[in-house]
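Methods — Computational structure assignment.
A single polypeptide chain was analysed. Its primary sequence is given first, followed by the predicted tertiary structure written as structure tokens.
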Amino acid sequence: MAGAFFLSPPSLIFFIFLIFSSITTPILGDEYSYVKQVDPKKIGIRKEKLSHFQFYWHDKVSGPNPTSIQVVPPPINSTTAFGVINMIDNPLTIGPKMSSKMVGKAQGFYSSSSQEELGLLMLMNFAFSDGKYNGSTFTVLGRNTVFSKVREMSVIGGSGLFRFARGYVELTTYSFDITTGDAIVEYNAYVSHY
């Protein structure tokens, strides 16, 4: 045979790899064409600040106009209401009385997520309706062991004046009505935002 060209197996593998790499490079390069670096000032991000918010969260499950309703009932044999889910639209006020000034609403849900104790998984947006924070929200996610004196949950984001928010909330039960199930909880939120 005159002048046949043969590659050794390692060379053949390298040659095939080289061909496929050059074919896929433009495709992979286009994969991230939707991502760009952004100047933070162009989207209104200024110096970061830490704010402390104190308000009262009113969870009303009783009466003709509840702010918290059960959407999934617990199994009959659970002592901790494991599996129950409540949707909430709870008022946030500056004082513990419902008649004090409302500054927003806590909108989201909580569910009983522990079989050993009364421990809730909570996810809610604190949607503000007062002053310069009107229309802005921050989101809280975490575990609430309701019989602990002080509980802590994370601030995981936000919108409006709370874009890129992070931080934590500490909550303490102010009052709980054993007959109705209604509760008032004091929230102290420490939020880093721009």
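Note: Residues 24 and 30 are 10 Å apart (CA to CA).
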